[in-house]
Amino acid sequence: MSLFRFKMWWMTQRMGTCGQEIPIETQFLLIEAHNGCDIDGEEDQDGSTYAVLLPLLEGDFRA
User: Fold this and answer.
1) Is the model more confident about 47 or about 53?
2) How far apart are CA 1 and CA 21, in angstroms?
3) Per residue in 15-39, pLDDT tens?
4) Residue 14: CB atoms within 10 Å
5) Does this model's pTM top 0.70?
6) Using an 8 Å Cβ cutoff, are 39 and 33 in contact?
7) Which residues of 16-54 are buried (b: 16+ CB within 10 A; e: fewer)?
8) Range of the domain at 23
9) Is residue 2 classed exposed, middle or buried when 0-12, 13-18 and 19+ CB atoms within 10 A define those classes?
10) Res. 54: pLDDT tops 80
11) What total number of domains does the chain contain?
12) Could you tell me how far CA 55 lies from the centroid of its own chain?
């Protein structure tokens, strides 16, 4: 799930299953990793692990 800016002052969510579906102006990205993907060595009880990605922004710098 991503939260992205679609107009200057408005954001909305978008769901997807691959990286190509991530909008350019993404402000927040929630990723679900299923069994077989080891992000931090721990798993939730349902077998999924979640990670949140936030962009770094300062002036013209974007990462």
Assistant:
1) 53
2) 10
3) 888 888 888 888 889 988 876 655 5
4) 13
5) no
6) yes
7) eeeeeeeeeebeebeeebeeeeeeeeeeeeeeebeeeee
8) 2-62
9) buried
10) yes
11) 1
12) 9
